[in-house]
Amino acid sequence: MHVLEVKDVNKSFPLPVQDGETGASRLMVLSGVSFVVEHGETVAIMGPSGGGKSTLLSLLSGLDRPDHGQILVLDKDIAAMTSTELNAFRARSIGIVFQQFQLLEHFSALENVRLPLDLRGVPAHEADRIALEKLDRVGLKSPIASLSGPDESGRVSACGDRTSIGDGSTADFCG
User: Fold this and answer.
1) 60-67 contacts: CB < 8 A, separation 24 or more?
2) What's the number of CA atoms in the CB half-sphere (13 Å) around residue 79?
3) Which residue of 27, 48, 111, 157 could cross-link 134, Cys pair, CB 3.0 to 4.6 Å?
4) DSSP structure string for 30-93
5) Class of 94-175 per CATH?
6) Are 109 and 154 in contact (CB under 8 A)?
7) Do 67 and 76 meet the contact criterion of CB atoms below 8 Å apart?
8) Per-residue confidence in pLDDT tens, the chain, 175 aa
9) Where in the chain is the domain with CATH 3.40.50.300?
10) 132: number of CA atoms within 13 Å, CB side?
């Protein structure tokens, strides 16, 4: 089983209509993208600014949908899932680290790392154990501290047990 399989994915965005123009023009960002990621493999998606990296990562994590093609995560076609199915699958199987970390400012490190576990229904004692282990893994010794900078990466480790997706400079925190 592949961890990730991308088959002939296309994604475009509408361009603003200029005065005097007719019809809707589209900017093709991704065209015919295909690749496979195996279990245990680490992959970096590199390219120039504006080259579609963040768009691809949004598609791979199910935050956006392709115009065409298939995206299979753990043999499940996430592009074909309903929003409810996709939300549940993402909560169980995909960890995401954004360029701008999505942390709750007034939560401690432990509370921020534990939040995805709570949302998945992990019992409190187990969520605490996992979150503390993940914080220790990234070298954060005080679970009551707030997260900033590289320490924010602790959250991804608790988000998804199988597949982690990181955008920008956050990518080296995945796994």
Assistant:
1) 60/4, 60/6, 60/165, 61/90, 61/94, 61/96, 61/165, 62/86, 62/89, 62/90, 62/94, 63/96, 64/11, 66/9, 66/10, 66/11, 66/30, 67/10, 67/11, 67/12
2) 20
3) 157
4) EEEEEEEE-TT--------TTSSHHHHHHHHTTSS--SEEEEEETTEEGGGS-HHHHHHHHHHH
5) alpha beta
6) yes
7) no
8) 899 999 999 999 988 777 666 567 889 999 999 999 998 888 888 888 888 988 998 899 898 999 999 999 999 999 899 999 998 888 888 876 666 556 777 788 888 888 888 888 889 999 899 888 888 877 776 666 555 544 444 444 444 444 555 555 444 444 4
9) 1-15+24-80, 94-175
10) 8
1-15+24-80: which CATH topology? Answer: Rossmann fold (3.40.50)
Residue type (1 letter), 166: G
Task: Report the distance separating Cα 51 and Cα 41, nearest Å.
Answer: 23
**Residue 11, token pair as written in the block:** 């994604």
Pairing state of beta strands 26-37 and 4-14?
antiparallel
* Model confidence pTM above 0.90: no
CA torsion, ordered 163, 166, 171, 175, to nearest 10 deg: -20
Q: How far is CA 124 from the centre of its chain?
A: 24
Question: Can you count the helices (H) and strands (E) in the chain?
Answer: 5, 6
Q: How far apart are the first and last CA of the chain?
A: 19
